[in-house]
Amino acid sequence: MKSYKYKFYLSNLNCANCAHKIEVLLNNEIDVTSANVNFAKLTLLLETTLSEKNIKRKISKIVESIDPDVKVLSDKEEQNNKLIFDLVRLGLGILFVCLSLIFDEKIINQVFILLAYVILLFRTCKKSLKMLLKGFNIDENLLVTISCIGAYLTNNIHEGLMVIILYEIGKILEQKAVNNSRKSISELMDIKPLYANLIEGEEVKQIKPELVKVGDLILIKKGEKIPLDGVVVEGKSKIDNKALTGESRLQSVDVNDEVLSGSINTLNVIVLKVTKLYEDSTVSQILDLVENASDKKAKTENFVSKAAKIYTPIVLILAILIALVLPLFQISFADAIYRALVFLVVSCPCAMAISVPLSYFSGIGASSKKGILIKGSNYLEKVSKIEEIIFDKTGTITEGDSYSYDLKILDSKYSKEKIIKYYVSGEKFSNHPIALAIMKKYAKNVKCFQINNFEEISGLGLKYNVNNIEVKIGSTNFCQDNNNDNAICLCLNDKLVAKLYIVDKIKNEAINTIVFLKKKGIKVKMFTGDNKDIALNIANKVGIDEVQYELLPKDKFKLLEKDLEKYNGKVAFVGDGINDAPALRIAGVGISMGGIGSASAIEASDIVIMNDNLDSLLTLWKISLKTNKIVKQNLLFAMGIKILVLLLSGLGIATMWQAVFADTGLTLLTILNTTRIFKK
């Protein structure tokens, strides 16, 4: 049966627990293959066998059974901001409370009190009844409604009013805090271009980036976002890549230089030839990655969501037991009811349900700001628990594009120009860092051979045919050279005709990164395809004690499997995102130093370091540690205060004041604590 994928927006969704309930209900539907609610982004990703004509109505019915205020939107329409209405209603309710205190006349006094109750409790009561009638859903709205009505009936009138007033104030402040967090997170990745200036003959038209084709020419004016990946064909300027890499230093670009979508042109007008469709562009990949990052949830997040599901009904049962059992111990029925009502107010799990997903999403947002893209909160949670990190060498510990070159021709009948032509003709089809380095050094003004039967043998080299001559370019083993040095050999019909020696430079920050990791008790290794002497030399310089060398990708894979078993999966692999793809995929955390624009890096790894800087690993580790620490603080603080107030309410010590603090006050405090993730 055909499956359809949809994306909807959930307007007015401000309860993380409700988001989890919506997700669970949708996943239980027979027509739904998978459903994922992203609370931080207010999105619903759905895979179903139903067509669009039927699905939206069905989803809306399910969503409204959980939260009647939430609206399912097909487009990201402007969210209904009910803040002003809620403030007016709150102000009117407080006014009637004040008037009830001024007038001594009993009837007038009671009228003002009733008006205050109706105005202040209307939204909460209406919502709780809707949810109760539609799906017997019990949440904080029902608990607060029961508590306030119970307080009125037991003659604790002003305490009941106080509960609903503080509850309403708390919900308004909570909504504002959540929206501010969402806004600050969204601003971090506000790189989506709204238009592209398409050049058609003498005219320039503004069109959607999605409509631009590969090979089209687009004009980028000063201050504009670059909408698609491309190559500069006219002009030179300086590009701001901060949104992609987190670095504020501007990049100079000239004719034939590649530029990436999402960056900003800061100086002169340039013309680009588009090299990728919008859906394949850097900006599209990054936006998709960041937007869906919350879909892969951390273990703590999943635990809290499941616990919240059974928490409230259990507390409701306990409240009923308090009301029924306490009178047996010579406590008045009215007092027992009051204690049960206080118990109900305390029980709402919002502080735990909202702070945990918000903390992880804030951590992902803070990482994005530093040029670190994380595919899910589960990976962010894992980073601080890593016990071993394995590094690739080329492009990871070493620069990968900054070399010294020495070309030795072994057959005098070939000129230097022809030898270079053989190298460049094959390497232009490879994405390996060494191939890219050769192209960068020698490709200018070289007219390549017409080649066929091209084949890239992973970890060894290339082979292809030129005019019935079999050409091999690769390691000494691949070209059967007995010297076994670190040369890139060139063989023509199995005859060794040239060797190219390339010495890769170690990244400036490599030593400090390795020292930091070792100080934190993390075991550091290096896996490389290079020969023994080169590998040991690099490892010795940066302080890595254990090295595995002359490895093919499959060898790295097998060795990594053993380490994963040894360290119970707490192993990270850091590679360049191309030849290391198998290892990146099976690692506990696959971290790619693939560089901005590398599609293979984004696809293969769990985390992408967009600026290729090893210092970002330390930043990532610190953000992970801080995020996990704040999650634990929020959980322990919320659970501790709630349990304390629940016990005190049962003993008759806690009043409605403490109960409201243990509900709304705690939620606000945990949200405010979460915002510390964005601070240095």
Describe the structure.
With 680 residues, the protein is α+β, with helices and mostly antiparallel strands. 49% of the residues lie in helices and 20% in strands. Strand 5 (196-200) and strand 6 (203-207) form a beta hairpin. Helix 5 (140-153) packs antiparallel against helix 10, helix 10 (333-346) packs antiparallel against helix 21 (615-650) and helix 12 (377-383) packs across helix 21. The radius of gyration is 31 Å and the shape is elongated.
- If you average the pLDDT, what whole number results? 82
Q: Oligomeric form of this entry?
A: single chain
Structural category is alpha+beta
The largest pleated sheet is described as: 7 strands, mixed
- Beta strands, count: 26
- Figure out the total of helices: 22
Strand content: 15-25%
Q: In which range does the helix fraction lie?
A: 40-55%
Unreliable stretches (pLDDT < 50, length at least 5) are none
Shape: elongated
List keywords for this structure.
680 residues, alpha+beta, 7-stranded mixed beta sheet, 20% strand
List the helices and strands and how they pair.
Elements: E1 4-11, H1 16-27, E2 32-38, E3 43-48, H2 52-66, E4 71-73, H3 83-102, H4 106-135, H5 140-153, H6 157-188, E5 196-200, E6 203-207, E7 217-220, E8 230-234, E9 237-240, H7 242-245, E10 251-253, E11 258-259, E12 264-265, E13 270-274, H8 282-291, H9 299-325, H10 333-346, H11 350-369, E14 372-374, H12 377-383, E15 388-391, H13 393-397, E16 398-409, H14 416-427, H15 433-442, E17 452-457, E18 461-466, E19 469-474, E20 487-492, E21 495-506, H16 510-519, E22 523-527, H17 532-542, E23 546-548, H18 553-566, E24 571-575, H19 581-586, E25 589-592, H20 599-604, E26 607-609, H21 615-650, H22 656-674
Parallel strand pairs: 15-22, 15-24, 22-23, 24-25, 25-26
Antiparallel strand pairs: 1-3, 1-4, 2-3, 5-6, 5-7, 7-13, 8-11, 8-13, 9-10, 9-12, 14-26, 16-21, 17-18, 18-19, 19-20, 20-21
Helix pairs in contact: 1-2, 1-9, 3-4, 3-6, 4-5, 4-6, 5-6, 5-10, 6-11, 6-22, 9-10, 9-11, 10-21, 10-22, 11-21, 11-22, 12-21, 14-15, 21-22
